[in-house]
Amino acid sequence: MQARERIPDTLDLTDRAKLTQHYFINNPDPSQNYRPHFGGNILAAPPYYSHSEWDFGDVSGRFVEGFILNRIMVGDGEGMDVEKGVRDFMLSLFREDGLSYRGYIKGLDPAKVGDMYLWDQGRVLYGLVTWFLKEEDARIEKYIQGMLEGLKKVALYEDDYAYFPYEAMYEGKYVQPRYNYWGDMSQSLWAATGQPIEPLVRYYEAKGNEEALDFAGKLVRGLLKAPIHFFEPSGAFTLHKEPFHFAFHVHSHTAALIGLLRYAIVTGDEELIGLGQRAYDWIKKHSSTSFGWTCEHYPYTTLQRDHQEVCCMTDVLNLAVLLAEAGYEHYWNDVERISRNHLVESQITSTEIYEPILVTFKHEIRKIQPEQGWHSYDNILERMVGATPGSGSANELFTTGGFGASGCCSPHMNKGFYLTWSHIITRKPGRIRVNLSLNFNSPWVEVHSFRPYQGKVEVILKKEAALSVRIPDWVDKWDVKVSVNGEEAPFKWEGDYVRLEKVHKGQKVTVEYPLRKEWIREDVGTASFDFRWRGDTVVEIKPKGRIVPLYERAHMDSDEIPFRDQPLRCAPEDFHLW
Known about the structure:
Elements: H1 2-5, E1 7-8, H2 13-26, E2 39-41, E3 44-45, E4 48-50, H3 57-74, H4 80-92, H5 110-113, E5 116-117, H6 118-135, H7 138-154, E6 156-158, E7 161-163, E8 168-170, E9 173-175, E10 178-179, E11 183-184, H8 187-190, H9 197-207, H10 210-225, E12 248-249, H11 250-267, H12 270-286, E13 297-298, H13 300-303, H14 310-325, H15 332-345, H16 355-360, E14 366-367, E15 375-376, H17 380-383, H18 409-421, E16 425-428, E17 431-434, E18 440-441, E19 445-449, E20 456-461, E21 465-470, E22 481-484, E23 487-488, E24 492-494, E25 497-503, E26 508-512, E27 517-524, E28 527-534, E29 537-542, E30 563-564
Parallel strand pairs: 3-14, 17-21
Antiparallel strand pairs: 1-30, 2-4, 4-15, 5-8, 6-7, 8-9, 10-11, 12-13, 16-17, 18-19, 19-20, 20-26, 21-25, 22-23, 22-26, 24-25, 27-28, 28-29
Helix pairs in contact: 2-3, 2-18, 3-4, 3-6, 3-18, 6-7, 6-9, 9-10, 9-11, 10-11, 11-12, 11-14, 12-14, 14-15, 14-18, 15-18
C-alpha cells in the first residue's frame, strides 16, 4: 500500500531508545562486575566516568529496569552480556534481611552515613518488579517477597499508617547522614516513605499479593499522616520548618506521589485520586512547565542553582499518564507536550554536542592523575552518547558543573520514552484508542503523525475495530475533518476523541485539523522565555542558548513534510508493562 510506504519522518521514540541502549551498554564497569557509573566529567584531561554511592541500588535498579523497557522498544539482543552483568551486580547487593546494601564508598564512613538506603530499595524494587513482569521468574519473585518482608520490619507503625523516619540505616539502626553538598538527609527532603509504594502496587496488580497492597496502603497513609508528612489536602507539597528541610527534592516527592496515585487508582479511592490530581496540578504550577522542564528542588534557589532534573520531568510525565488513564483525558496533552519537547531535547545525540563546551571552557580543563577503580577513562565522550546530563535550563542542554552524563536521569529519561511510547495507543477487545499523535506500529494498528508540519494523523487498521483518536486541546472541534480511504466519514465525539464505530482491516483513517502557530511567554524557574509553538511542538526559543542551545528546530517550522525510507518497527503484543 502506497500510504504505508510514505511514512512521515517525525518523532519516533524507538530511535531515541536505540540511542539510550548505546549508553546502557557502554556505561557499566566490567572491572567492577558491571557496576554502573553514576557520573562523568568531560572538562578533565582525560575525560572520565566516575563511581559514587548512587551506583549501587539506585542506579543498578534503574539500569535493570531500563534495559528491559528499552529492549521492548528496540527489539534486538545487543549487549545481552552487559545486561546480565548489571542484573547480577544488583542481586549481589542483597543481604540476609532481604534488603539491598551499598558497598565501599570512597571517603564515606557507613557508620555515619548508613549503608542501607530507603531510596535504593525503591529503585531496586522497580528493577525486580519490571524483571518479574517481563519474565515471570520465580527466583526474582522471591527477592521481591524478601524486600517486602525486610521493609515491613524496618518501618515504624502508628495507628493505620507506616513510615520510615529517615533515609538511611546502619547495622539495623536509623542514622541521619549529612553530606557537605546536601546538608542533612532528613525525611522531609527525601520522602523515603514513598519510594517502595508504586512497585509494590504493581506487583499486587500482577500477582494479587494482598500483603504487598496492604503495606503499600500503610505507606500511602504515612505520606499523609506521619509526623513528617508530604502532601496537604489542597495538593500542595508540604514545606517543613527547621530542624527539618524547608525545601524538598522534587524527584523524591513526585516519585512518592506516583505511588500514592497508582494505589488510589488500583483501590478505586476517588478521594485519594482527587488528592493526586490536585498535587499534580500544584507541581505543574510551582515547579514544572508546559513543555516539560521541571526544577530539581523547590523553592528553586534554596539548595542549589535553578536547574531542571530529568528524573523530575519523567515523574511529571508518569503522573500525567496515570491521571489520563484514570479518566482525566486532558492530561494526555501534557504527556504529548513533554515527550515532544524537553524530554527528547535533553538527550545527548552525538559527540559533536561536546565541541562547543570544550572550546568555551578550554581554560577550565584540568589534567588529572588517573585513578583506577574509581574512574573510567576509555572513549568517554562516545560512551556518553544516548545519555542525558540530567540538569540543564530551558535553552541550554548543560548547566555549569554538569558537563557529563547522569546515571540516574539517563535511565529515567528512557523510562519517559517508554511510558510515552507504550501509551500512544491503548487497546481493549474490539476497540483501539490513539492517545498521542506520534509514530507507532503494532500488530493492531499503525499510526503516522504529520505533526509538527501539518495537523494530520493517519491510522491504518490491521484488524477490524472501533477507533477513537484524541484531538489536542488547542483545536476547535468544528474544524476537525475525518476521512476513510480518502472519503469523508461520519464520526462521533467521545470526550476529547473522535470515534468511528467500525473500521475494517486495511482501511486508512485520516484525521485533520488546523495547526496552531503562536509565540507564548512562559516562566521557567526564575526566568522567562518566549516559545514558538507549532501544535504541541516547540520549534524555537528566545533568548537562544549560547553554548549547547536547545530547540534548534527551524527545519520543523515548515508545512513541507519530510518522509522516511525505513518502516516503523512493530511493537510486540506484550509491550505494555507499566
